[in-house]
Design brief:
The protein is of the alpha/beta class and 490 residues long. It is 30% helix and 21% strand. The protein has 14 helices and 20 strands.
Length: 490
């Protein structure tokens, strides 16, 4: 008979490694197998573009309880430092009974059902596949945690872009290729970089071009659906900051405090006036908000480097006509470029192109096949995975009875991302955290070093906690009315 594993964790990125951190803290002698399709830990960070940086302060990111090898707490860690952090956790901080197995694909789980998801006496058969040999094999596990975080598989493409006619493929480049293209000797050529997408990847690309483009190069940004962003200086100012400044958690409460389910554009407008949110060019029509963070310096660089920022429009096609590059927009307008070379930089959405993205998908953690899938029910994947794994270890029965909330109407396939999306997302985050806290010990809550409240001084943390407790009934009643209660197996 093959050995039975206590926990099989699918994913070794931000989410999966925090499941390991929670198990290590409460069940250090457990047998754990963590699998990932990448060779090394880090999940999607193995695939992100080289110049990506964290949106948030690095001390509240990474693996809970695992220290960073960075001196300045204000540093927005770059990709290589994030991967170094994840790798060092696996190399230095997991017990001998924990195993990481890379280049391994999770196929399926059988032999389980709703009743066995939290039952440690029942086992499931998990089918895995070696990506080297393509061979499939089975392991037996008591608990299967599907912890794939945002499950990044690349940005949207011209093939998946419903606005595009396919003709741009000949001049499109991946955002991952931008540094090498930018570094090529232009030999006095006049080049144009047209960025497709005005989300965080698009603004990162514009900032990169501001710092690295050639003297004659020009940059254009076609935003698609215009976005609003958190103002970094407001929501996560430099550390140490004053206790008088609202915490990041306070700002989440401010987002949904006046939201009633049908007034999102008005709420976002007021948040802009209060300095919590802003948009490129201060476009008043921008109401779509995906929790992206953009500092004032980044915003200034984007606006200064771009010859034109085209809001609320989409790249449809491309043609070369009599030596002139024509970029056709879905509105009927055109970019007519007389440059020697034109590159369309693909920064289409990476998070919302798939209906199964945890940003869009709302399911109860207990799945019909007996697995547990935590998604982003408590906010970012790392925090969610750490806290819900802790709950599983402390009180398995609570997983079935705890009130958890999701979107009332589905996004992705059935509904476009709109102003209500982030309101409902933020409401579910606060409500679900408050629900989970009722079932955990204070020591469990305090052990989570990913909690964004920790960026604030102790006095401010206390004020924030008291505010949340005072408004707990309001938050939960709003979640009942505006969001929906999730049920096991749905």
């Amino acid at each position: 008979m093959s050995r039975i594993i206590d926990f099989l964790v699918v994913g070794a990125g931000y989410s999966g490694l925090n499941a390991l951190a929670a198990i290590k803290r409460l069940r250090p002698n457990a047998s754990v197998l963590c699998v990932d399709r990448h060779l090394r830990p880090g999940g999607g960070w193995n695939d992100f573009y080289d110049f990506v940086r964290l949106h948030q302060p690095h001390p509240m990111f990474g693996v809970s309880g695992h220290k960073w090898n960075l001196k300045d707490p204000n540093e927005l860690a770059p990709r290589d430092k994030v991967l170094e952090h994840f790798q060092s956790f696996v190399d230095e901080n997991i017990p001998a009974t924990f195993e990481f197995r890379g280049k391994t694909n999770y196929v399926s789980t059988s032999g389980g059902d709703l009743s066995t998801a939290v039952d440690s006496s029942a086992t499931k058969t998990v089918t895995l596949q070696s990506l080297d040999t393509k061979d499939q094999y089975q392991v037996e596990a008591r608990h299967v945690l599907v912890s794939r975080g945002i499950n990044y598989e690349g940005h949207g493409t011209v093939q998946t872009d419903k606005k595009a006619d396919g003709s741009t493929s000949k001049v499109e480049i991946s955002v991952n290729d931008l540094p090498s293209v930018c570094a090529e000797k232009s030999e006095g050529k006049k080049r144009a970089f047209v960025i497709i997408g005005g989300g965080k990847t698009g603004t990162d690309s514009a900032v990169y071009l501001h710092d690295n483009k050639g003297e004659k190069d020009e940059v254009y940004l076609v935003t698609g659906q215009p976005k609003v962003f958190f103002v970094r200086e407001t929501v996560a100012g430099s550390y140490p900051n004053s206790w008088t400044l609202p915490s990041i958690t306070d700002n989440l409460w401010y987002i949904i405090k006046d939201y009633e389910g049908d007034n999102a554009p008005e709420v976002i407008k007021n948040l802009r006036k209060s300095g919590i949110l802003h948009s490129l060019g201060d476009d008043e029509t921008a109401v779509t908000f995906n929790w992206g963070v953009l500092g004032q310096d980044e915003k200034s660089k984007v606006e200064s480097v771009c010859s034109e920022i085209i809001q609320n429009d989409y790249v449809q096609g491309y043609a070369l006509q009599k030596g002139e590059h024509i970029v056709q927009l879905s509105s009927g307008n055109k970019l007519q470029l007389d440059h020697d070379e034109v590159f369309l930089v693909n920064c289409r959405s990476a998070l919302h192109m798939k209906e199964e993205s945890p940003f869009l998908r709302d399911v109860h953690p207990i799945r019909p096949d007996g697995t547990l899938d935590f998604g982003m029910l408590l906010g970012f994947p790392g925090n969610t995975s750490y806290m819900l794994t802790t709950l599983l270890l402390r009180d398995p029965a609570a997983m079935e009875k705890i009130p958890l909330y999701g979107f009332r109407s589905g996004y992705g396939k059935h509904r476009r991302i709109d102003a209500d999306f982030v309101m409902s997302l933020t409401l579910r985050t606060l409500a679900n955290n408050l629900s989970v806290f009722d079932y955990l010990r204070l020591s469990d809550i305090r052990s989570n070093t990913l909690d964004l409240i920790l960026w604030s001084p102790y006095v401010r943390q206390a004020i924030t906690v008291l505010s949340l407790l005072a408004n707990k009934s309001t938050i939960l009643s709003k979640a009942e009315r505006i969001n929906k209660r999730l049920r096991a197996g749905e």
